[in-house]
Task: inverse folding
């Protein structure tokens, strides 16, 4: 076997990767609150659909009751998964994207993320429209904080100062 083949095999063996589950401790620099927002919207939609399901009862046909129970179970499962996904995405933003400077500039940042993460847990524990709406509102507020922080960071990279636009 040639020395290049031996080096190639050695490199291939050394570079074999196992399963990874992190986003992303390299750090990759790719952060976006979109996944958290989408997950919060899914939680909200599932709660809305759950509230619209017919309540099983003695007047309901057995097949209709099975369908309602099946839909209920599936919607709860989707709500649970997306509430957890939202929580994970928010914690990634909090721990990897936002900095101490961001927290100093926006004192409400810590409380906003803390509240949103708690709302993720509350939405796993229950199915109330108000709680789902509060999570969606909290994620939208964090999205605005993210956009502002990202704008400041991008201007810091270029040496330009951002200007604040008046609220429309």
Result:
């Amino acid at each position: 076997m040639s020395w290049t083949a031996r080096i190639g095999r050695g490199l291939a063996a050394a570079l074999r990767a196992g399963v990874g589950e992190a986003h992303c401790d390299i750090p990759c620099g790719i952060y976006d609150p979109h996944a958290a927002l989408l997950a919060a919207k899914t939680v909200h939609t599932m709660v809305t659909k759950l509230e619209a399901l017919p309540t099983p009862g003695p007047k309901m046909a057995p097949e209709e009751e099975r369908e309602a129970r099946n839909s209920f179970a599936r919607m709860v499962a989707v709500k649970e998964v997306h509430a957890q996904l939202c929580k994970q995405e928010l914690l990634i933003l909090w721990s990897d994207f936002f900095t101490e400077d961001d927290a100093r500039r926006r004192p409400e940042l810590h409380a906003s993320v803390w509240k949103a993460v708690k709302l993720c847990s509350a939405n796993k524990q229950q199915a109330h429209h108000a709680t789902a709406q509060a999570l969606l509102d909290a994620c939208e507020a964090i999205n605005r904080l993210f956009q502002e922080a990202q704008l400041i960071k991008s201007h810091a990279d270029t040496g330009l100062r951002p200007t604040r636009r008046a609220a429309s």
User: Anything to note?
Assistant: The chain has a mean pLDDT of 87. The chain has one domain: 30-158.
